Amino acid sequence: MTVTSLDFTGLAAQAAQLAAGEITSAELTAAALGRAHASQPTLNAFRHLRDDEALAEAADADRRLAAGERAPLLGVPVAIKDDVDLTGLPTSFGCVGEFPCATSDAPAVALLREAGAVIIGKTNTPELGQWPFTEGPAFGVTRNPWHPGHTPGGSSGGSAAAVASGAIAAALGSDGAGSVRIPAAWTGLVGIKTQRGRIPTGGELFHGLTVLGPLARTVEDAALLLDVAAATGTTFQAAAAREPGRLRIGLSTRIPFTATKTRLDPVVEASVRRLAESLAGLGHEIVEVEPDYGLIGLTFLPRSLTGVRDWTLRVPDRAGLDPRTRSNAGHGRLLAGPALRLARALEPGLHRRIGSVFGRVDVLLTPTTATPPPPIGTFDGLSGWETDQAMIAACPYAWPWNVLGWPGVNVPAGLTDGGLPLGAQLLGPSHAEERLISLAAQLEEVERWPERHPATRW
Predict the structure, then answer these.
(1) How far apart are CA 133 and CA 158, in angstroms?
(2) With 90 as the cut, is the pLDDT of residue 348 above it?
(3) Any idea what the Cα angle at residue 198 is, between residues 193 and 202, rounded to 5°?
(4) Residue 448, by phi and psi: left (phi above 0), alpha (psi -120 to 50) or beta?
(5) The pTM is what?
(6) Residue 202: HSE in the Cβ half-sphere, 13 Å Cα cutoff
(7) How far apart are CA 88 and CA 94, in angstroms?
(8) At what angle do helices 338-345 and 297-312 cross, to 10 degrees?
(9) DSSP assignment string, 356-385
């Protein structure tokens, strides 16, 4: 098999080929780095690429493989988002400025290394992960491999672009208001928003809103990366390999209360309802339900804005931040006291009220976003309030599950007539990843989304 034919070979397949001696890590890593560099002028997925370090790690992986050592990702190239620490590189989280290089790996990165993964680089993200587009003065514009005139989403947009383009098979992202699921939806990927605490982070991120999660082209690959990053053995890979059983699935298209103007695009709604029909064809019962979200948004803002404030304290040159970031940080300072404590105190009640829907259904199916991916530059020149309105109009569905801390999986839901990807969410109650992964894997067998690739080449 030639290296150039490996553009869309999956994570699990690459690991198996390495273990069988069919290819070397040096070849795989050099090919991944070559594709990453070649795509940079068009897609701009990476903030940092580790050419020398990655090739040295690949050579070491080859020595270990030749000696008979085995590990889940030994020698397989992957990437991580630039909001987690990787020794020797700065963690600038989309910001301008000279950040110090990390002197130790984040816990999830350490687990990736322990599993033998070769990390080829860190991927682009908007400033402090605030927006569903990956653009900013620190790095420019990250583009969608399916249509470079459109955003791949955010804030894990660089990871999504790198995977969807075939540069790498899987990447780690983070999700604080849909930041794994939204770019997965808009680039045709599987993206898992994990249960809070599932993947170690070394402390709460954005006051419990943000978790780490995988992006991949298949459920199997996402499950493999999740098992490694969460140190759960083969728990989620096993879930991807078994039938979910007959489930009662609640279809919900109502937008949670946002206090801004929102509307579900008919193209997105049609794609989600078509997916519901596919699930019904697999033997599942589909019922229309509406979770009792109430005013959950009032508990989101203190946590998210205080999290922005916290991160700005680490920025070496705050004057270089986007004015919208500085404004959000100012609001975070005001909300960091009683409002933040109240938001956290209300969470158990939200679990009970919204979670009551799982007394009627096993899984929720909802849109991941309300619109297809917007064109590049849609959010340019907007004030903070205008940005919030445009952002919520495009992406009103994902963030409640961050408040709850519960898992969700984006699955591809087809393409628009113009060839732009759309997605749907499978949402579950606390610690329901295995059920969601089993269902997503079953759906993948009939939807066959891994066979769809972007036509764009750099």
Answers:
(1) 10
(2) yes
(3) 110
(4) left
(5) 0.97
(6) 11
(7) 17
(8) 130
(9) GGGGT-SEEEEES-SSSPPBTTTTTT--HH
| Residues whose CB is less than 8 angstroms from the CB of residue 113 and which lie 6 or more positions away in sequence, other chains included | 105, 119
Angle between helix axes 219-230 and 11-19 (nearest 10 degrees) is 70
Cα–Cα distance measured from residue 240 to residue 206, given in angstroms and rounded to the nearest whole number: 30
Active site residue 81: yes
Give SS3 for 425: strand
Q: Residues 92, 165, 174, 179: which is the catalytic one? A: 179
Q: Which helix (H) or strand (E) holds 35?
A: helix 25-43
363 strand-pairing partners = 249
Structural contact between residues 91 and 102, judged by C-beta atoms closer than 8 angstroms: yes
Catalytic hit among 25, 155, 165, 304: 155
Half-sphere exposure of 306 (CA within 13 A, CB side): 21
Question: What is the greatest pairwise CA distance in the chain?
Answer: 61
Amino acid at the residue 274: R
For residues 394 and 1, give the distance between their C-alpha atoms in angstroms, rounded to a whole number.
Answer: 42
Q: Is 179 a catalytic residue?
A: yes
CA distance 362 to 381: 43
pLDDT confidence tier of residue 3, bands split at 50, 70 and 90:
very low
Residue 245: other Cβ atoms inside 10 A: 12
Name the architecture of domain 11-451: Alpha-Beta Complex (3.90)
Q: Is 16 helix (H, G, I), strand (E, B) or coil?
A: helix
Determine which one of 39, 81, 122, 193 is catalytic.
Answer: 81
Task: Parse the chain into domains and list their residue ranges.
Answer: 11-451
Report the alpha-carbon distance of residue 316 to residue 326 in Å, rounded: 14
Supply the pLDDT for residue 237: 98
* Amino acid identity at 432: A
* Cβ proximity of 113 and 206 under 8 Å: no
Q: Has residue 449 got a pLDDT over 90?
A: yes
Q: Which two tokens stand for residue 226?
A: 């999740």
* Contact residues for 54 (Cβ-Cβ < 8 A; gap 6+): 29, 33, 77, 118, 119, 120, 121
- pLDDT, position 458: 65
Mean pLDDT over the full length of the chain? 96
What pairing do the DSSP bridges indicate for beta strands 46-49 and 118-123? Answer: antiparallel
Of 133, 146, 140, 17, give the one whose Cα is nearest residue 73: 17
Q: What is the pLDDT of residues 157-189, one digit of tens each?
A: 999 999 999 999 999 999 999 999 999 999 999
Tokens matching residue 35: 């594709």
Active site residue 104: no
Residues near 267 by beta carbon (within 8 Å), at least 6 away in sequence: 372, 416, 422
Q: Which amino acid is at 16?
A: A
